[in-house]
User: Which sequence fits this backbone?
């Protein structure tokens, strides 16, 4: 292994020797062009000229720290074969043109490859293809990246710093991610970015913040963390979306296209808003045919801030006990449903109307569902839309106005706590079908 | 090659995609096993308690 410092000024990186490469910074040129065994530097002593990549470049590692010139990639790529060290360092002081692509080819499983792209702009960002290896890859300092493609990589991505992706993010089937704090931001301001998890359960949060950009799923999204849509279009592309929580609570121009996949909010520990569309200004919401499920395997308060929108089915699946689900906003649900193994509480917005097409929430003996209002003493209104009746049981109801009249049957095992109207605390009338007409026995 | 698939078990529906090389050599049985593994992993996620998370600020 040897060092290769660019001292060629404005010239072309190809297979010729010339006076382009030196063993030391600002040294005398005349060394052979670098190979995959060499450490390549473009630094402050490389001049401010334009280096044109005229071939497929090769190196063990490459470092642009201090370089103030222009690196013209054209359509060529650089192969980076090193491992166990910082294999790529970019800088905001240099300019990239063309289509920068680096192919990281280490195929072993030892050590950590560190990548430091710097906080470069979209125009200066490079595509990183990490196509092999079972080692650890980590990003040092906030990094701007065009496409980040792990296809073929089976190691671990360590989330030590934030990243901004301006192109596609593709995880390699079999790889893992670590860390749950540092954010990956989708930052493109035009076109469509593809997020493909390839079966990988991501552990860090996503933030979509490119004004005018679109993020579209290339496979099911599963993250044990959060997804926040601040700007742009999120298109689930008919795949499942599984996140700890989903938030788009701002007034920016943005679109959510839910598609036909199942959306699951896994509700992190503690008090958390698992769905936050409280502010819908600037939001285009396409519910499509997707249903939402809140699966709470942890106790606590998990708020669904619906923003007054219309949803398909919202199902609360309770398994942890001591669960409170406040719903905010005058929302409409085609179906509001639940299942539980413990008692839990559903809190509807006071002085607002929650409209349902059907109601499939009922407790059971020993696992009562408490239905109340967000403001004690002030009713929350429940309206059944589309006809039919509601048949429930084992509810403990307080501050609830159920409409229309003679529709909401709370069942014989429910409790009329206080300040309720419209609820009928009996089982629904029996329906007899004699073949010609229906008889109702109240 | 993208293989879209949907698995429904016990009222849980999972829609995902397998992305394979065009010249892959997996058998149908192996592909079906991969689909099932995806479903099983997802089912574990949605039934396992999530840890406490750091907030992401809206802009």
Assistant:
């Amino acid at each position: 292994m040897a060092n290769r410092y660019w001292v060629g000024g404005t010239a072309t990186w190809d297979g010729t020797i010339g006076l382009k490469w030196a063993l030391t910074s600002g040294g005398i040129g005349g060394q052979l062009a670098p190979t995959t065994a060499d450490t390549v530097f473009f630094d402050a002593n490389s001049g401010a000229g334009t280096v044109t990549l005229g071939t497929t470049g090769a190196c063990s590692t490459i470092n642009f720290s201090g370089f103030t010139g222009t690196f013209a990639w054209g359509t060529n790529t650089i192969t980076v074969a090193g491992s166990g060290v910082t294999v790529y360092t970019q800088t905001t002081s240099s300019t990239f043109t063309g289509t920068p692509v680096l192919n990281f080819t280490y195929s072993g499983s030892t050590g950590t490859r560190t990548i430091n792209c710097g906080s470069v702009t979209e125009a200066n960002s490079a595509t990183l293809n990490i196509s092999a290896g079972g080692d650890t890859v980590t990003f040092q300092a906030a990094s701007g990246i065009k496409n980040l493609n792990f296809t073929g990589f089976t190691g671990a991505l360590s989330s030590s710093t934030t990243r901004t992706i301006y192109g596609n993010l593709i995880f390699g089937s079999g790889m893992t991610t670590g860390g749950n704090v540092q954010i990956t931001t989708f930052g493109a301001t035009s076109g469509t970015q593809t997020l493909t998890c390839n079966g990988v359960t991501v552990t860090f949060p996503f933030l979509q913040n490119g004004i005018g950009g679109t993020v579209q799923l290339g496979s099911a999204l599963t993250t044990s963390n959060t997804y926040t849509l601040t700007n742009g279009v999120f298109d689930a592309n008919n795949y499942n979306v599984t996140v700890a929580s989903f938030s788009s609570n701002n007034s920016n121009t943005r679109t959510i296209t839910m598609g036909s996949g199942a959306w699951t909010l896994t509700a992190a520990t503690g008090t958390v808003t698992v769905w936050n569309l409280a502010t819908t200004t600037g939001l285009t919401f396409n519910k499509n045919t997707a249903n939402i499920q809140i699966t709470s395997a942890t106790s606590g308060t998990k708020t669904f801030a619906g923003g007054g929108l219309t949803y398909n089915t919202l199902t609360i699946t309770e398994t942890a006990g001591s669960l409170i689900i406040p719903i905010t906003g005058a929302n409409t649900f085609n179906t509001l449903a639940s299942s539980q193994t413990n008692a839990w509480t559903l809190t509807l917005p006071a002085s607002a109307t929650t409209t349902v097409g059907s109601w499939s929430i009922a407790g059971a003996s020993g696992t009562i569902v408490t239905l109340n209002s967000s403001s004690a003493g002030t009713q929350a209104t429940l309206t059944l839309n589309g006809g039919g009746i509601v048949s429930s049981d084992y509810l403990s109801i307080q501050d609830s106005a159920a409409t229309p009249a003679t529709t909401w049957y709370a069942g014989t095992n429910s409790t009329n706590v206080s300040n309720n109207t419209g609820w009928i605390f009996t089982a629904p009338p029996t329906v007899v079908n004699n073949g010609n007409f229906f008889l109702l026995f109240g | 090659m993208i293989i879209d698939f949907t698995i429904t078990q016990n009222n849980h529906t999972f829609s995902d995609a397998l992305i394979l090389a065009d010249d892959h050599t997996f058998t149908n049985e192996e592909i079906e096993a991969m689909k099932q593994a995806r479903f099983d992993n997802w089912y574990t996620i949605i039934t396992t308690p999530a840890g406490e998370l750091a907030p992401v600020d809206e802009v």
